[in-house]
Amino acid sequence: MLDPLRVEDWSVPDPLRPRSTSIAGVDAPPDEIEGLLALASDCGMSAEQARERMRHVAAALVSWPDRARRNQLSECEITTMAESIEPRLEAVAAAAGADNRARRLRRMHPGEP
């Protein structure tokens, strides 16, 4: 039986494989940003409002590995999660026009939240 607390029992996610859930009908990375923008529109947000929200999300998540370490996740767990989180975080930041700022912040403050 698989134990969700044992890292050895985790399956490594394939970031290009379609998910079992979708965002506005999108279930794979190449179109996720379009799905987020469509969902934002369905929720009554303009494209600029959606991009502003994406900027806030990207800025808040830049330091996720450090926060994971503070919550005692192992480097193995962080590496596994990074394979899924990082490409999506970069896509959200790029779509929001925040990618350069997020990368700059990470280089300037690598160990800070």
> Helix-strand pattern, N to C?
HHHHH
Note the total helix count: 5
The average pLDDT is 80
* Biggest β-sheet strands, sense, barrel: none
N- to C-terminal separation? 36 Å
| Rg of Cα set | 16 Å
% residues in beta strands: under 5%
Helix content: 55-70%
Structural class: mainly alpha
Low-confidence stretches: none
Number of strands: 0
Shape: globular
Explain briefly what this protein structure is.
With 113 residues, this protein is mainly alpha-helical. It contains five helices and no strands.
Structural description of this entry:
With 113 residues, the protein is mainly α. The chain has a domain of 68 residues. The chain is 58% helix and 0% strand.
Main attributes of the structure:
113 residues, mainly alpha, 5 helices
SSE topology:
Elements lengths: L31 H11 L4 H15 L2 H7 L4 H22 L2 H10 L5
Helix pairs in contact: 1-2, 2-4
